[in-house]
Amino acid sequence: MDGSMAPGLWRAGERDRVDFRAQRMRGVELSGTVKAADIVAKLKAQGKEVISFSVGEPDFPTPAHICDAAKQSLDRGETHYVSSNGIPELRQLIAQKSQRDNKIPCEAKHVIVTPAKQAIFESILASIDPGDEVVLTDPAWVSYEPIIRMAGGKPVVVAVDARDEFRMLPEDVASVLTPKTKLLIVNSPNNPTGSVLREQDVRGLCDLAQDKDLWVLSDEIYEKLVFDGQHHSLAAQPGMFERTVTVNGFSKSYAMTGWRLGWVVAPEPALNEISKVQQHSITHPTSFAQAGGIAALKGPQKSIEEMAHEFRARRDLIVEGLNKIPGWKCNKPQGAFYVFPSYDFPMNSQELSDHLLQEAGVAVTAGSAFGRAGEGHVRMSYANSRANLQKGLERIGEACAKLGQRGR
Ligand SMILES: Cc1ncc(COP(=O)(O)O)c(C=O)c1O
Fold it and tell me: Is 185 within 8 Å of 136 (Cβ atoms)?
């Protein structure tokens, strides 16, 4: 370069400094649950003993036959690109599973194989225009709101309450709808509260969606972890398939969080748009991980039942244990592997979480990470051994007794 420039061009310093951050990233924070997990990993790496109630993944290994299938796929040299919407056999198996278990009237052509979180991202990006309103609960899983914001949408929250077992009630949803409402996000069984919608709730939400012409994103990732009652897929309700995008996956049911494998089932007009985001972003999930997915759906399903059985026993243990500690109150959730107890110590949920980590070596996630209505609560995952749950509860009891002694 000889230093001469075309007229009208500028040098660094001659115009306002260019900020990397796009407007759409304002108001988007890093994930509170990822942060909490990172802190625990760091403490453990330093040799500190931490009992973690903060993890959002089963503490069971992925069943061996699933791992073997992925290894065999690698050995066969299946390390190249596959079809963007997923390996045809896997799409077919997912469609069959959705028909059989969930009564969703779908075919393989309605399935895209993609990690569940990516499925949510793709679905929201493909459907939301700037200014569109998206209704979700408060508290809710940490990533819905940032994704809505990144897509330019406006999150509109419906507070849910322990008195109603944190269920998303149709009448509460109805009260926040406006002509700009485009999408309703439903998550049952729920993270962070463990709540499970009743059939009447599902019917009411579906009536509302049809009456007000809304699209629904139904996140059913914890489907297999329902201890009391039953799981009801929204897309199975009459007239709902045409307006529902169902997200599900392998992470929680088959203890496969690290595989990054899940799916979305959607009617064709929605699927075509979601496909575009997939094709222009991740192309497809890892080829040999999909071989593991095929083995998961084709193979024995016993591990799911065993895991659910164990989670149920742990739920009972943690709910009972927490309710015995002065200052704590915990309802009995019907699904997933989380409890969302409230407390009456004079501190916010982040301060309480910090206190428990420092004083008791117990990691929980502040309820505020899940929304304003989560304040006054913490989320505790019981994906940990019964012995650790017991020990953690004892330590929480001791650390909270100290709070009382300080006269707070
Ligand atoms: C409610 C909910 N939806 C979606 C996801 C994302 O699942 P995956 O890790 O399989 O992408 C999670 C993960 O914790 C979740 O809790």
Answer: yes
Distance CA 3, CA 208 (A): 64
CATH 3.40.640.10 fits 80-298, yes or no: yes
Ligand 1 centroid – CA 76 distance (Å): 30
- φ, ψ (nearest 5 deg) of residue 184: -120, 125
The verdict on the CB of residue 117 being under 6 Å from ligand 1 is yes
- Predicted confidence at residue 39, as pLDDT, reads 87
169 falls in which pLDDT band (50, 70, 90)?
very high
> Which atom number of ligand 1 is nearest to the Cα of residue 118?
11
Domain ranges for the chain? 23-61+303-405, 80-298
pLDDT in tens, 223-249: 999 998 899 999 999 999 999 999 999
Residue 405, pLDDT > 50, answer no
Tell me which amino acid residue 291 is.
A
191 lines ligand 1 (CB under 6 A): yes
With a 6 A CB cut-off, is 257 part of the ligand 1 pocket? yes
Q: Ligand 1, closest atom to CA 119? A: 11
Report pLDDT digits (tens) over 104-156. Answer: 999 999 999 999 999 999 999 999 999 999 999 999 999 999 999 999 999 99
Kindly state if the Cβ of 249 falls inside 6 Å of ligand 1. Answer: yes
Which one-letter amino acid corresponds to residue 59? D
Is the Cβ atom of 365 under 6 angstroms away from ligand 1?
Answer: no
0.85 surpassed by pTM: yes
Q: 389 with 382: CB under 8 angstroms?
A: yes
Q: Is 141 in the pocket of ligand 1 (CB under 6 A)?
A: yes
- Give the three-class secondary structure for 43: helix
Q: What is the third-level CATH fold of 23-61+303-405?
A: Aspartate Aminotransferase, domain 1 (3.90.1150)
| Spacing, Cα 297 to ligand 1 middle (Å) | 19
Per-residue model confidence (pLDDT) at position 2: 56
